[in-house]
Design a protein that fits this description.
- The chain is mostly helical.
- It has two helices and no strands.
- The longest helix is centred in the middle third of the chain and has 82 residues.
């Protein structure tokens, strides 16, 4: 094999590579020309839903925060009521004893 044949083989490979690369780039251009409108349409259709999803997430988080605070206040009130309610009979009894002592003591002091 002569040097000219080797050079010719390299040149042929280079030309074939350039042709295949050009063909690949043309194929990509055609694919993008065909798919780009669909991609843009998909983006136009998806972005509003993505924005709405983000807004809904923020609103839901705010609502859950408010509902959580209201629930926490309700639980605190119910705990206070649960602690005080059993003590009401004792408080009424203590009030009655205090009233009796208040009524009877002035008579004892006067005597």
């Amino acid at each position: 094999m002569t040097a000219l044949a080797v050079i010719s083989a390299f040149v042929a490979v280079g030309i074939l590579t350039a042709f295949l690369l050009t063909l690949w780039l043309l194929l990509q251009v055609v694919v993008w020309l065909v798919l780009l409108p669909f991609r843009l349409l998909f983006a136009v259709l998806v972005w509003p839903f993505a924005i709405a999803k983000g807004v809904a997430g923020v609103l839901a988080g705010t609502v859950l925060l408010v509902v959580g605070l209201v629930a926490a206040v309700a639980v605190a009130i119910s705990v206070v009521v649960a602690v005080i309610a059993p003590l009401l009979p004792l408080a009424l009894l203590a009030l009655a004893v205090w009233a009796l002592v208040r009524l009877v003591r002035p008579a004892a002091v006067a005597a």
